[in-house]
Amino acid sequence: MARHLITSALPYINGIKHLGNMVGSMLPADVYSRYLRQRGHDVLYICATDEHGTPAELAAKEQGLPVDEFCAQAHDAQKAVYDGFELSFDYFGRSSSPQNREITQHFARRLNENGFIEERAIRQVYSPADARFLPDRYVEGTCPHCGYDKARGDQCENCTRVLDPTDLINPRSAISGSTDLEVRETKHLFLLQSKLQSEVSEWVARHEHEWPQLASSIARKWLTEGLHDRAITRDLDWGVPVPADTWPELAAEGKVFYVWFDAPIEYIGATKEWADQDPENRDWKSWWYEADTGENPVRYTEFMAKDNVPFHTVMFPATELGVREPWKKVDYVKAFNWLTYYGGKFSTSQKRGVFTDHALDILPADYWRYFLIANAPESDDSSFTWEHFTATVNKDLADTLGNFVNRVLSFSKKRFGEEVPAGTEAGEAEAKLGEEIAGLLAEYETQMEALQFRKAAAALRALWSAGNSYLEEKAPWLEIKTDPDGAALTLRTAMNLIHLYSVVSEPFIPASSRAMRSAFALTDDTAVWVSADEARSLSSVPAGTPFTVPPVLFAKITDEDLESYKERFGGAPE
């Protein structure tokens, strides 16, 4: 089977992420990784906290902590939330690791040797009140493109346009708030992206036909506008330092690399972190260096929201190309639009919307996992509302799946005891059901392979609905009065559906899948997926298998619950 390298956008270290961050990268990457593992592929799912740059320094300053201590605590806090969501990272690293420092500095040296880095004197914002140069995010002001008055010096959160601090109208220091700013000369390293324009264009042209339109259109837009040489160092105390053996003057001044230079390299760095834990059995270079050669090449898929797309489809590929070494480049970029909160943007800085730690406080992870993937913002932005969330949970999870599991197992236990009943041989209704299940499973597989998550969720929902339709058609609560063996067959078939659901639903709702699967005391339950023939036969749980009735899988959200959530988190804007 194939080797699949999966990465999701690195979450910034400054605070717990919101649901929009979760559905825009990490959660769909997890769903896809789980599915590929079930299908027998060799999967390596890598992510990490993005710990450099001004957000880390500003957040540490706000909490009164040294930045390294703040980052260590914040990493553990984020990891705890992702564990709560059951994100199945093979490794969740840190961009401040020694491995990332080593590889980032190697990339910089190689780019310099190949003529793609240049030292330039530039004029940069300086704050006398703070007695320091202000890197991009240390400058705030009004966006010249959309008028948003809280734009940062690197990018406008409102219109997503990339900015320089000197572009801002009415700029101010993010440290002191001082508007007494000057522009002074300083030296920085520039990545000469303009010299790599044609190579990046050719590389994108070879891949963009396979990418979603969102990813390819953003990449092409940047290339059409032309790649500009970009400063890749900053005046910060925290970051990957410029190596003194190559740039002694800048190193003496304390320059560090720009976070958007070292952050994508952390995908490689985190893989080395993973390998260094067990070097005898793990080879990080086989995933990243000359990974397209040999008998079993790597297929690399990235997951990210649209604001990260330019950096991963243009800037990082330019870096990899300029290094002139055979580093693995992305094959498929799964890009997402925004998940909004009642039509407004989720915002970490403005604390608008539901954040992932708070989500887990009120409901288990599977509720959120299913809703977010079933409503993933793939072709357009999608909106989170408490009303929509409640309706989805109650209809799909509580009624369609949860109620099916509970009533089948409870009724069978009441009428036939705690073993799967035998009943008669499968008949025409069961054969029809088997064909329907096999067809729906094939559709589910097709959409998962195509990374069409909303369509995959619809196919999974249809699988669950098929069981309810079969149960309504056979009506074992009536059948048992005149044909007990027929009712036993119906329940045995339904129990086999529950086991099938437990296997194929695992990428979406892993905890609930475990609960369904553990209901049956099968002596040798090693199924990792369900074949078409197994779907047709529905015989993996034989008669006589002991079973238990698990706790309610999904509790309905009541009107009182809904009102309390809206009161806590806010409902529709006034």
Structure explained in plain terms:
This is Methionine--tRNA ligase. Its EC number is 6.1.1.10. ATP binds at residue 348. Belongs to the class-I aminoacyl-tRNA synthetase family. MetG type 1 subfamily. This protein has 574 residues and is an alpha/beta fold. It has three domains: 3-113 and 260-336, Rossmann fold, CATH 3.40.50.620; 117-191, Methionyl-trna Synthetase, domain 2; 399-546, Isoleucyl-tRNA Synthetase, Domain 1. It has 20 helices and 17 strands. It has helices spanning 19-38, 54-63, 67-84, 98-113, 197-207, 213-225, 248-252, 259-276, 285-288, 309-323, 356-362, 365-374, 386-416, 428-449, 453-474, 476-482, 484-504, 510-518, 532-537, 559-569, and strands spanning 3-8, 42-49, 91-94, 117-127, 132-133, 139-142, 151-152, 169-173, 182-191, 230-231, 233-234, 256-257, 298-305, 332-336, 339-341, 344-345, 382-384. The strands form five sheets. The protein has a five-stranded parallel sheet with strand order 3-2-1-13-14, with helices on both faces.
Annotation field: number of helices: 20
Neighbour order of strands in the largest sheet: 3-2-1-13-14
Regarding quaternary structure, what we see is single chain
Q: If classified by CATH, what would the architecture of the largest domain be?
A: 3-Layer(aba) Sandwich
How many domains make up the coordinates? Answer: 3
In CATH, what is the class of the largest domain? Alpha Beta
Q: What's the overall geometry?
A: elongated
Q: What fraction strand?
A: 5-15%
What CATH calls the topology of the largest domain is Rossmann fold
- Termini, distance in Å? 53 Å
Instruction: Give average pLDDT, whole number.
Output: 94
**Tally of strands:** 17
- Secondary structure class reads alpha/beta
